[in-house]
């Protein structure tokens, strides 16, 4: 008998004040620091949903839409949008608020695939999803589409690995790249 769990049971919110020690040379928050927070919340959401230890299997798209300044309050929100047999796709939204003005900007949305594991490292089955809103159905279907697009991407190697064909294409469509050493 399959166990069903709601999206709500996976929801996590994490807020963190951005300190000078998190900034790079130009005073903006390091992308790597943000990625680390995203990985933490993805882990927390997937662990909460599955009730087990989880590892990150892949990260789908990380676009830094707006830079984050020192002193801003960053809020990450995460939920499980889709489940496979042992995997969960966790969606994460990152917003940053200027505490003085109250203005909030959207900084990032990413989708992490997490795998449930037992203590010995073997994969574990995860609960089935119970969807209870239109938004959850849309996010589920978007995740399913993303997964099938990724499978297609993995399956196709440009020009099926044929270097001569690849170089002919490079010469015509990417003529600004020096491939002299290869074509000689
Ligand atoms: P969407 O995926 O097209 O809805 O894009 P968004 O940028 O709005 O959100 C990205 C992901 O962050 C969503 O797919 C959710 O998994 C998660 N998320 C967004 N809003 C919330 C929220 O209010 N609470 C929680 N827990 N997660 C959220």
TrEMBL record:
Pfam families: 4HBT. GO terms for molecular function: long-chain fatty acyl-CoA hydrolase activity. Keywords: Hydrolase. Gene3D superfamilies: Hotdog Thioesterase. InterPro entries: Cytosol_ACT, HOTDOG_ACOT, HotDog_dom_sf, Thioestr_dom. GO terms for cellular component: cytosol. The keyword Hydrolase applies. Residues 8-120 form the HotDog ACOT-type domain. GO terms for biological process: acyl-CoA metabolic process. It comes from the Bacteria. The keyword Hydrolase applies. Belongs to the acyl coenzyme A hydrolase family. This is Acyl-CoA hydrolase. It comes from Arsukibacterium tuosuense.
């Amino acid at each position: 008998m399959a166990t069903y769990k709601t999206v709500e049971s996976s929801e996590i919110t994490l807020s963190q004040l951005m300190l000078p020690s998190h900034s790079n040379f130009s005073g903006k928050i390091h992308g790597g620091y943000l990625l680390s927070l995203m990985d933490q919340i993805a882990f927390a959401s997937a662990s909460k949903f599955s009730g087990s230890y989880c590892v990150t299997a892949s990260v789908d798209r990380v676009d830094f839409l707006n830079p984050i300044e020192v002193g801003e309050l960053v809020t990450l929100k995460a939920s499980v949008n889709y489940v496979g047999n042992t995997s969960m796709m966790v969606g994460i939204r990152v917003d940053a608020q200027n505490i003085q003005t109250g203005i909030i900007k959207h900084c990032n949305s990413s989708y992490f695939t997490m795998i449930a594991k037992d203590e010995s490292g073997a994969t574990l089955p995860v609960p089935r999803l119970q969807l209870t809103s239109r938004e959850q159905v849309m996010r589920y279907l978007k995740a399913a589409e993303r997964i099938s697009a990724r499978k297609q991407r993995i399956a196709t190697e440009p020009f099926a690995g044929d270097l001569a064909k690849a170089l002919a294409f490079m010469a015509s469509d990417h003529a600004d790249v020096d491939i002299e050493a290869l074509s000689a």
